[in-house]
Design goal:
With 394 residues, this protein is of the alpha/beta class. It folds into 2 domains: 35 residues; 343 residues, Alpha-Beta Barrel (TIM Barrel), CATH 3.20.20. Helices cover 45% and strands 12% of the residues. The chain is built from 15 helices and 9 strands. The strands form 2 sheets. Strands 1, 2, 3, 4, 5 and 6 form a 6-stranded parallel sheet that branches. It has a 3-stranded parallel sheet with strand order 7-8-9. The longest helix has 35 residues. 50% of the residues are buried. Bound molecules: zinc ion (ZN). Zinc ion binds next to loops.
Length: 394
């Protein structure tokens, strides 16, 4: 009798432990996401009728969102994080580059991160119950995030289209002329850690839809120095080979997070224009996150785009006004044809607004005296033209 009572107690205790474990497994990922990707508390932003009217006629494009890193189902609307399709539609977003993060240091900072520092994304992959192969392979992490974006199109073709070529872009624009809330998504990498040290993986990433690659993230890597690493080095031999392979495949090269020496080296050897997918300008906001304005000028001279971020380390505040001021500064420095948007939404930043509220930027740009033509370009026209010129023809 005593044994059966004890067994009964043990059974109940086991069930309780299992319930607690399952609840924790289900609750922890959204808790992490909510904590890592907040939006500052704010009253609704003032948006004039003329700004609203203009905003609704813009092609809006953003070069950098890490939304695939989190377990949110991007088809649904959430009250946390920064991006999902319903909120993109509310913000009138047409084009979104989804960047896949594969390695990020614990104790991440903008000044100096040792290559030997532990990687945070491994713990995140385990906590979010990603497939086991993503726990050890950075390439598989990129592929897993890419599949999430590709599945958006399969599950939701009336609202989302993946764009991989100039032809796709043409089809997308045609479809959007009769379906004004269709969102076009593209795939990029944050750093080239997803190569897992193997140049052949560039082609594998290309075959799986990746059309933009950045070179470094917070660590120095096999390609060269990070802006936040320890060496400040330029491109390595491996990095030069990687650039050549990216150019051969018409992969857009993103030099955000790269050391200034890497940016100079890439400018020397690249025959295609470069993108900085998320940054600010030092002349507007002096920050270790931003490379020198003179390098920005060099990138623009070669036809490149500088995409302005929405967080404090890039533009010294996180309000629509500060983003608009950075854009205005950029236009003064390099011209309206070379400035674009690069939010870094869902990249563990704290913006003052989410993607549904982008009309507040249009309002502030008008308030700062930008012309309608300039606003059309920076809000997405430049991104569209760049993609029309630089995506592969398949
Ligand atoms: Zn980044």
């Amino acid at each position: 009798m005593l044994i059966s009572i004890n067994r009964n107690k043990l059974y109940k205790k086991s069930i309780f432990v299992i319930i607690v474990l399952i609840s924790a497994l289900l609750l922890i990922p959204p808790m992490i996401d909510r904590n890592m990707n907040p939006v500052s508390d704010h009253a609704p932003y003032e948006v004039s009728d003329s700004a609203k009217a203009l905003h609704n006629t813009l092609i809006i494009g953003d070069w950098h969102a890490d939304s695939a890193l989190w377990n949110r189902d991007l088809k649904k609307i959430y009250d946390y994080g920064h991006v999902d399709i319903p909120r993109m539609q509310k913000g009138n977003v047409a084009l979104q580059m989804f960047t896949t993060v594969t390695k990020s240091p614990s104790g991440q900072n903008y000044e100096s991160n040792k290559t030997s520092t532990n990687d945070n994304i491994t713990a995140l992959a385990i906590a979010q119950r990603w497939p086991i192969k993503t726990w050890t392979s950075l390439f598989e992490r990129a592929m897993f995030q890419a599949d999430k974006i590709k599945n958006l199109e399969l599950d939701n073709p009336e609202n989302f289209m993946l764009i991989e070529s100039q032809q796709d872009l043409g089809i997308f624009l045609l479809k959007r002329s009769s379906n004004s809330t269709l969102v076009g998504g593209l795939l990029g990498t944050e750093g080239s850690h997803a190569l897992d040290g193997n140049l052949k993986n560039i082609k594998r990433l290309y075959r799986n839809g990746f059309r933009m690659m950045s070179l470094q993230h917070f660590f120095d890597n096999k390609l060269g120095g990070s802006l936040h690493g320890t060496s400040g080095d330029g491109l390595t031999e491996f990095g030069i080979e990687a650039i050549n392979e990216m150019m051969r495949l018409n992969i857009i090269i993103d030099v955000s997070h790269s050391s200034e020496n890497v940016v100079k080296d890439v400018l020397d050897i690249s025959t295609q224009p470069l993108v900085i997918s998320h940054t600010g300008f030092n002349g507007h906001c002096e920050s270790p996150r931003n490379i020198s304005d003179s390098l920005m000028v060099e990138i623009a001279k070669k036809g490149g785009l500088i995409a302005v971020g929405f967080w404090d380390a890039a533009v010294c505040d996180n309000t629509p006004r500060s983003v608009a001021e950075a854009i205005k500064f950029g236009i003064g420095l390099i011209g309206a044809d070379h400035v674009s948007l690069g939010s870094d939404f869902d990249g563990t930043i704290t913006p003052g607004f989410d993607i549904s509220e982008l009309e507040a930027i249009t309002h502030e740009l008008l308030e700062l005296g930008l012309s309608e033509t300039e606003i059309r370009k920076v809000m997405g026209g430049n991104m569209l033209s760049f993609l029309q010129d630089n995506l592969p023809i398949t």
